[in-house]
Amino acid sequence: MEIGVAFPKLMPANNGRLLVEWALRADAGPFSSLAQIDRLVYGNADVLVAMAAAAAVTERARLMPTVLIAPLRGAALLAKQAASIDAVSGGRLVLGLGVGSRPDDFAAAEAPMARRGRRFEEQIAAMRRAWAGEPFSEGVGPIGPAPARKEGPPLLIGGRSEAALRRSGRLGDGYIAGSAGSAVSNQAQETLNYYRVVEAAWKDAGKPGKPRLVAGLTCAWGAYGAARTAESIRAYYAFRGEAARTMDVQVPSTAQALRDAVRAYEDIGCDELILEPGLADLDQIDRLADFVAGL
Q1: Which has the closest alpha carbon to 128: 86, 76, 167?
Q2: How far is the C-alpha of 87 from the C-alpha of 109, rounded, in Å?
Q3: DSSP annotation string for 95-163
Q4: Domain that includes residue 126, residue range
Q5: Which pLDDT score is estimated for 133?
Q6: Within 10 A of 87 (CB to CB), how many other CB atoms are there?
Q7: Residue 13: what pLDDT?
Q8: What's the confidence (pLDDT) of residue 182?
Q9: What CATH number is attached to the domain comprising 85?
């Protein structure tokens, strides 16, 4: 199982040097991918801007939005941005996508939230046409640049509803499971249950092989890092009101707890686990890198 790392959920958007240094250390360390969440009504840097910045200073690690909320954007612009990052990075973009669930994000983007699942599927089809160099639509020519890979970046589709899971199997190259901050063993089992639905839809679509399985893990190093990470999770879900303030967020933060978490995801056949610390402190990525290197 590969192990990647994410930018902290609330990496200060006005501290570009910290973002770049985090990317450099992720690339220098043992991590397979560098990931970031996507929100609009939130204080993080735009996910595609962060991925582009990382593409410019890294050489090895994959770049993975986890997940980009596609219906907030137009398909043509998203196809162009993704192809550009894929080309600049030498084919290292893995495009995690989802339909989103926050009404404030859609209101701010002036995008309709209704029927977003259907629009999402139309976006995927349109992006794939663009990446193949075909006319974007009737009367609209091709949209460049060409991505590094002829077929475009791999698509990992997230979500937990039946429709989202089956969409992932039908239209994606794999499934990406979020991190809920609950007991790791429960998270891993839930991820496997979701993946089975994705796998069934994949087989129903007659696709060869099997979908890739990627999962996120809220974690930290040390008690202080765990406490701050738990705070960042509660802040992220603040729209839930009192339920967010009283969330029992469990954050593996010792070598043993992290080893147990890695084992839990290995046991379900996970292909890649993304470590998601919530504290924007370079010591966190350094300590997690040492942990991963020692596995």
Answers
A1: 76
A2: 27
A3: EEEE----HHHHHHHT---TTHHHHHHHHHHHHHHHHTT--SBTTB----PPPSSTT-S-EEEE--SHH
A4: 2-293
A5: 96
A6: 17
A7: 65
A8: 67
A9: 3.20.20.30
What are 136-159's pLDDT values in tens digits? 999 999 999 999 998 999 999 999
158 contacts 177 by C-beta, under 8 angstroms: yes
At 229 the three-state DSSP class reads helix
Closest among 252, 267, 255, 189 to 217, alpha carbons compared? 252
Cα distances from 144 to residues 83, 87, 92, 202, 238, in angstroms, run 8, 11, 18, 30, 39
- 175 near 194, Cβ under 8 Å? yes
Burial class (CB in 10 A: 0-12, 13-18, 19+), 258: buried
DSSP class of residue 251 equals -
Domain count, the chain: 1
Residues 154, 127: Cα–Cα separation, whole Å: 12
Residue with tokens 């992932």: 168
Q: Which amino acid is at 260?
A: D
**Alpha-carbon torsion, ordered 248, 251, 253, 258, to 10 deg:** 130
Q: So what's the pLDDT on residue 185?
A: 81
Q: How far is CA 119 from CA 2, 74, 187, in A?
A: 32, 10, 29
Q: Helices (H) and strands (E) in the chain — how many of each? A: 11, 9
Collect the ranges in the chain with pLDDT lower than 50: none
For 34, phi and psi rounded to 5 degrees? -120, 125
Cα separation, 264 vs 259, whole angstroms: 9
